[in-house]
Amino acid sequence: MLMDQAGWHMTGKLVIPHNISIVALPAKCPELNPVENIWQFMRDNWLSNRVFTSYDNIIDHCCEAWNKLVDQP
């Protein structure tokens, strides 16, 4: 499993099954994490330069952006 080095990922309290190996990404290297590329694409295209009116408004915009992403070929 590929993981960044966020504290909740690297805590000693995390129980890791024997059949899973953790590969920690170097600190401060979001370009190596594929999920970060997805978030950056969504921010660049649909989520930046907006004023959100509420938490629910944020969720609605994020869901709309996600649906636009998965609808692309």
From TrEMBL:
Tc1-like transposase DDE domain location: 2-58
Upper lineage is: Bacteria, Pseudomonadati, Pseudomonadota, Alphaproteobacteria, Sphingomonadales
- The domain of life for this entry's organism is Bacteria
**Protein name according to UniProt:** Tc1-like transposase DDE domain-containing protein
